[in-house]
Each structure stands twice: as structure tokens, then as C-alpha cells.
Amino acid sequence: MEDAKLLEGRAFKFGDNITTDYIIPGRYAHLRSNLPELAKHLMEDIDSTFIVRVHEGDFIVAGKNFGLGSSREHAPLVIKMAGVSAIIAKSVARIFFRNAINLGLPVLLCDTDGIGDGDKLEVDLKAGTINNLTAGSQLTFSPLPDVMLAILEEGGLLPYIKKYSDFVLPTGRKP
After folding, report:
1. Among 2, 6, 145, 148, residue whose Cα is nearest residue 85
2. Domain residues of the chain, as ranges?
3. What is the pLDDT of residues 38-67, one digit of tens each?
4. Where do runs of H (alpha helix) occur along 24-145?
5. Contact 92, 99 (CB under 8 A)
6. Cα–Cα distance between 91 and 150 in angstroms, integer?
7. CATH topology for 7-144?
8. pTM of the complete model
9. Residue 119: its H or E element
10. Cα gap 55→14, rounded to integer Å
11. How many other CB atoms sit within 10 Å of the CB of residue 140?
12. Which residues contact 59 (CB under 8 A, 6 or more apart)?
């Protein structure tokens, strides 16, 4: 993610308490070694058409407690594989948040009541703003710390460590 890069896409709105079982149903656990096949079942118990309607750059927007339940690293991974550029929610489970950042998927926390299903959004990760182009409004979120932005810029924690051979922020950035 370059400094000036904005994320743009449509909002797919979900409610509160979206568990990792809703994100990737447990009955497909046998597909964990076949992630492209597992990704075909993303959110299917909530919206069976989601996977065919979501496009590169779109957003999952949710209420409170997104990603609760068992710690399935596959949940944020298949969300990212489906092309979702960020999760925007009122709150998320801590382990889901860390898994998502480590995999290069931004998680943004703000009041999502002003975002409707299908709204076109523009997100500036550095500025901490979400422009709702459909509603003509702007939301703010706490900007992500520089360390998280650095991880996201490289596509996740593993690519970051491979590039820098350590966990040291690039010159000029504070942890």
C-alpha cells in the first residue's frame, strides 16, 4: 500500500456476532489444505450469493464482535483471497484482528451504522477516513499504528519479515 493509495469498493453489510463459523462453515474444515475451494464457501450460511457478487476491492462491513469464535487463521485468509480489501466493523475479536493484520488484511474499527449494503466507499488507511460516496458522508476510524501499516504495505507479517529479515520498521518509521 503506497502512502497515497486509497482502497475503493462496495460495502457488503452484515450484522453483529459474525462468527468464524459463519465466515467459513465448519463443515468445510476438510478443505483447509485447498484454500481456493474453501474460499468458494465464504459467508455462504449468511448470504449464499456473497461469493459470486463480491469483487476485488470490496469491503465487508459489520456490526459488533466480527470474527468471534474459534481461532481460524483461514477465516481472514479466505476473505482476502476473495478480493475483500478491508473489514470495517464496530468491533472485532482480538485474535481475528491479529490474524487479519498478520495476513495483510486491514481491519478498521468505527461506527458502521452510516454505511448501507452496496454503498460505494473510499478508504484512506493513513488518514483514518472512510468516504461513503453513495451517502455523501465521511466516517473516521483510529488510524492504524505505523507498525501495522508497514505490515499491511508488504502484504502481511511473513512477507514483511522475508523482505527485512527481521522485525525492524523501514527507516523513518516509528513502531
Report:
1. 6
2. 7-144
3. 999 999 999 999 999 999 999 999 999 999
4. 35-39, 50-53, 74-81, 94-102
5. no
6. 22
7. Aconitase; domain 4 (3.20.19)
8. 0.91
9. none
10. 16
11. 12
12. 7, 9, 10, 11, 12, 84, 85, 86, 87, 88, 121, 123
